[in-house]
Each structure stands twice: as structure tokens, then as C-alpha cells.
Amino acid sequence: MHLTYRSAGVDLDAADEAVRRVRQYARATFTEGVVTDIGAFGGLFALGKYREPVLVSSVDGVGTKLKIAFALDRHDTVGQDLVNHCVNDILACGAQPLFFLDYFATGGLKPDQLGDVVKGLASACREAGCALIGGETAEMPGLYAPGEYDLAGFIVGVVERPRIIDGSGIVPGDAVLGLPSSGLHTNGYSLVRRAFGLDSPDARAKLEQYYVELGRTLGEELLEVHRCYLKPLVPLLTRLKGLAHITGGGLPGNVVRILPPDIKIRFRTSQWEIPPIFRLVQRQGGIEDAEMFRVFNMGIGMVLVCAAKDKDEIRSALPEAREIGEALPRGEGEPVVIEVS
Amino acid sequence: MHLTYRSAGVDLDAADEAVRRVRQYARATFTEGVVTDIGAFGGLFALGKYREPVLVSSVDGVGTKLKIAFALDRHDTVGQDLVNHCVNDILACGAQPLFFLDYFATGGLKPDQLGDVVKGLASACREAGCALIGGETAEMPGLYAPGEYDLAGFIVGVVERPRIIDGSGIVPGDAVLGLPSSGLHTNGYSLVRRAFGLDSPDARAKLEQYYVELGRTLGEELLEVHRCYLKPLVPLLTRLKGLAHITGGGLPGNVVRILPPDIKIRFRTSQWEIPPIFRLVQRQGGIEDAEMFRVFNMGIGMVLVCAAKDKDEIRSALPEAREIGEALPRGEGEPVVIEVS
Question: Which member of A59, A142, A194 has the closest CB to residue B8?
Fold first, then answer.
């Protein structure tokens, strides 16, 4: 027996071909900070001039939204989801992105699939002015099912220390605004998949079903790209006291992360329209209201807290923002209260 | 039917318990640069004073070495493997670590398993003076088999721009030294698993077999922690022209990454002892010499290139270093030549 790495399920030549494509997409994202081409042992990025630079980093995955991409064999959106998720996370601290690295792990490398994923990563990186300077492509036969992969991303951004946004200045009477999400973003997909029975062999047929209330197929709705809030919010960062990116844990799980111990926020759902996909998922799964708000963003992708006096200026800069709640003294009870109507 | 996130296979309470443990381990790694506690949307790290800071980043996984950890139900070493791999990668550019983030993805969260993994991450981070400032724990039922997980890590370090090490100054006549690896490090495990038939149900019994030539069980040998080269090399960085971390691709695949176009390196295997594990794997799998050198580190974990005049000083600072090759004009032929004896 002559055993080679290829016969053990790892194809270094296919990996080389995939790496060539990845480099091409990545190069198109390079900004002036990028020091080297890809291929060195690390990605090199010159920081430039800052007074008190604080690096802000985040790591995320796409979760089981990947399973929807697998079922529809469509791989050019999940990379955008991942980058936008990461960009929003560091934006919530007031930081703007510098560079991004990805981790792509699969049972057997398919250069087309990886190419589409990286195309998505690169397009969202370019939109955000973020350089894709590195990545790891891991071939792990036996850990992933054939045709499946996992995808994680890592972002580094920077903020001047006095410009960090952390919610610490929030006081009673501050305004609470919400920016609409584009759909489920990247959270709650395990619950959605269970509600619609998407683990079954006919998942694709279910995803290709057209829903009048959605105005498109279920699959199109579920693969809608996680929205990036960078461009509308950058001009307003100095006016914002707190920013919460609404991901896993929903409004209560994420807004609590920016609240001072003596403050609560009360949301009134009458102030915004909950998009049809959430109603559909809730009906399909027979899910309680509280669970829906704990798992999904329910139509609000980013929560902004600002002084009452700045509210009108911010609302006129962000016509789609809704005033969805208010900051109050915490007193007894939960830090985040949602009045469902 | 009332569907909740828990019944869909995602347990947010178990996740909370796991996060508590993770925070405890992570806090023990915090260095003076860390600005916030974990829980914000991003990990915050104050850079401190540099003249021309270049950030050096890398992303890695542990590969199918994880499968050995699963078979032996031992989870406190893979985190060390991952951190040390990342530290070595950025060290090869001359950078020292600042902070680290991990991505842990599993089918169903087991707090003990995650706790052990993060314990390993944190212990290696502490050793390297690197702060573990963030991470993502993803529960993805249906993507991972029960009890299994994947693990990726992201590191950011810094180097002053004039101190970047990239091999560009290598000239004919430079000395080539090698530092011993501690074993397979994190590469070639798919081939090893095939060679020993470790995909079978009796994998654990095979891993618990004692080998006289190894002086321990196969499993102990295969889980040996990927060595970190930071401490011995930091004092010598200004004397080094090139550093290659020997990972997937072996000596030829990694050393080529630091060579100027007119230089080749010739290695002579007579200059170092190839550890018994590599001979055992080769025999077991009937693997050709060339394939062995293309896949495994073959006992050399880090290659150092320095001016001939600096060689003696470096060798006396690193008693375990061996002079394993030399830099030559490239001429015709391959950039990396291995003379096997």
C-alpha cells in the first residue's frame, strides 16, 4: 500500500487552485494599509496615524443559515452575511473596519464553492473599505458531511480611545431609535429550520415555495443578506451614546450589553412594523411572543441610543429610523422590557 | 405545537453557563492592553506606543488532530495547539502577540468540553503574553456530529515596520538552522488517521496501544502539544533574516514562502534526527519519502535563516538548533531541495 495525502482525502492540488481564486478576490479588497501580498505567514497591515488607537475585534460565524445555502446550492451570499455581521459588531463600539480574515472548513474542497464564498466575502469587504488579508482553508475529511462547510470570520477595526461607544453615558430620557433589519440576518435559523421541517430530503422544494406575504420564495427570504449599517452610521457616531447590534438573544439579550446598571429600556412594538417573515415563522412553529423576541431581531437590526436633543437631527439623517423606545430609571425588574401590542 | 429554541437543539442556558466558565479562563490572560471586559460587541485592545506599527494577523485551525482528541475524550490540549500555531505564524514575520480570539462550533454544547478547550487556549495565551479577548461559541445542530466540534483561532500581533522579517535579505552563503518540533504539531493527521485506520470504531484501543519506539502510547504521541517558539526566538529576532514555520506543506511548502526569487535552500536530512513517530507513520502507511516531507514537519518545527557571521551566536543561544542546510543561488530547479540520507 502506498498512501498519499490525496488518497487520505486531502487534495493539495485542488487546494492550490482554490487558493489562486481566493487571492484574486482578496487582492481587489486591498486598502492602503495592506503591507504584503497574501502568502506570508501572517497578514500585514500598517496602522497609520492615530493618537490613542484602540483595536476592536470580533469573531463570528453564519450559523445554520449555511444549511439553507447548502440546500439551495447557493454560496455567494453567506460571505456577505459574515462580513456584515462582523462590521456591525465592531461598529457598535464606534470602530471602523481595517481588515478581515476568514476560516473555511470543509470535508472535501470544491474550488467553485469556495470561490463563491470568497467572492461574497470580498464584495462585502470592499463595500466596507475592509481589506481581506488572510484566511485558512481547512480540509477535514470525516468532520464535515460531503458538500458541507463551516465558515467563520474575524475582523479588526480601530477607534480613537475617547470615541469608544459603550453606552456608559446613557441617562433616563435618552431616545431609543431602531434601524430596520433586512430579514433574519444570521440568527434563529435552527428554529426556522425546525419550524418548516427543513431537515428533510424535500428541503429544497420547501425553500422554493412562493409565499404571497413574502412576495418571494421562502429560500430567497431566508438567504437575504445580513444588512451592514456602517455607511449610514459613520457620520453620526459622535452623536451616539450606545449602539446594540441585534443578533442571537434578540433585543433583550443584546441591548442589555450596553446599559448602565441603573438604566432600563422599554420598547413598544407598536412603533415599528414586524416584517412578514417573523409572523410566518411564528405561526408555522407555534412559537410564543417572548421566545420570538429572545431569538430573532423582529425587524430591528441595530438599536441607537442618543440624547433627546440629538434625536431630530439623527432621525432626519436616517429617514428609515423609528423611535422604538425610551431609556428609564431601572428600578425593580428587567433591564429590557418589551411591550408587545 | 410549541416550538422553542431549546427544542430545536440550541440551549441558550447551557450556552450561558459555558460563557461564564470561558470568561473566567479568559480574564486570567488579560494584559495591560485590554480595555474592556468580555461582553461588549467587540474585544477592545489599546495598542500603546509604536513608531510605525504593523499589525500581523493569522487564522488557523487544528485540523483533524481534533479527531484524536474526540477519540480519547481529551480536550485540554487542542487549544494549546491552536494558540501556539498562531503565535508561531506571526512570529515568523517578526511580530509578537497582542490578542487572540477563538471560534468554537459544535452540534450540541457540552460545557465541560468547551471549558477544557478554553482552559487550553487560555494557558497557551498566558504563556505567550497574549490576551484572549473574544470568541464565538456556535451551536449548529445538524452540521457537526454529536460530541464533535471544530475550533479556529485568530491572532493579532505587532511589529515595528523596519523589524518585519520576510526573508528578502537572504543571500547565498547564509546559514539555515532548524529548531526541533515536538511531534506532528498540527499537520498531516488525515494521513496518519488513514495509515493507522483510526476511522474505525476501535480507534480508542489503537490509540491506547503502547509503542516501545515512542516510549508511550500512540495517542499520547499524537496529542503532543504543538510547540511554541516565541520565548527562545524573541531575543534573537533582530539577527534573523528569515523564519519559516513548518506546517502543512512541510519544509518545501513553507520555506519557499520566505525565499527571494534568486535563492534556493538545500536541506540535508543527515544533519538532524527524524523522530521515531515519522518513521512509524511512514512504515505503517507505506508512504514515499517525498510525500512524507511534503506533508509532515519531519522533526523541524521552525527554520531560521541568518548571516553566516551570526550563526555561532545564535547556535549558542539555542543549543537545540541544528545547522540543517544552506542558502545557494537558485539557478535551475526547485527552490527547496531536500537531500535525504
Answer: A194
B175-339 carries CATH number 3.40.225.10: no
Contact state of B188 with A5 under an 8 Å Cβ cutoff: yes
Angle (nearest 5°) at CA B192 between B186 and B197: 140
Calculate mean pLDDT across residues A298-305.
98
Q: What is the rounded average pLDDT of the residues B157-184?
A: 97
Tell me where in chain A the CATH 3.30.1330.10 domain(s) lie: 12-163
**Among the listed residues B186, B188, B176, B177, the one whose alpha carbon sits nearest the alpha carbon of residue B294:** B188
Considering just the CA atoms, what is the radius of gyration of chain B in Å? Answer: 21
Contact A158, A314 (CB under 8 A): no
What confidence tier does A338 reach under pLDDT thresholds 50, 70, 90?
A: very high
CA dist B226 and B66 (Å) reads 13
In this predicted model, what pLDDT tens digit does every residue of B220-268 receive, in sequence order?
999 999 999 999 999 999 999 999 999 999 999 999 999 999 999 999 9
CA distance B84 to B88: 6
In the CATH scheme, what architecture does the domain B12-163 have?
A: 2-Layer Sandwich (3.30)
- Report the chain B residue with the minimal C-alpha distance to residue A49: B52
Task: Compute the distance between CA of residue A214 and CA of residue A221 in angstroms, rounded to an integer.
Answer: 7
Strands A149-160 and A53-61: antiparallel
Q: What pLDDT does residue B19 have?
A: 77
Distances (CA, A) of A300 to A120, B72, B307: 24, 45, 60
What is the rounded CA–CA span in Å between residue B120 and residue B25?
Answer: 9
Contacts of B146 in chain A (CB under 8 A): none
Rounded Cα distance between A165 and A185, Å, is 23
**pTM score, whole prediction:** 0.95
pLDDT band at A6 (very low <50, low <70, confident <90, very high): low
Of B131, B42, B44, B38, which is closest to residue A161 (Cα–Cα)?
Answer: B44
d(CA B192, CA B213): 17
pLDDT of residue A85: 98
Where in chain A is CATH 3.90.650.10?
A: 175-339
Chain A residues inside the 8 Å CB shell of B165: none
d(CA A298, CA A290): 11
Q: Which residues pair with B266 in a beta bridge?
A: B326, B337
pLDDT digits (tens, 9 = 90+) for A38-80: 557 889 999 989 999 999 999 999 999 999 999 999 999 999 9
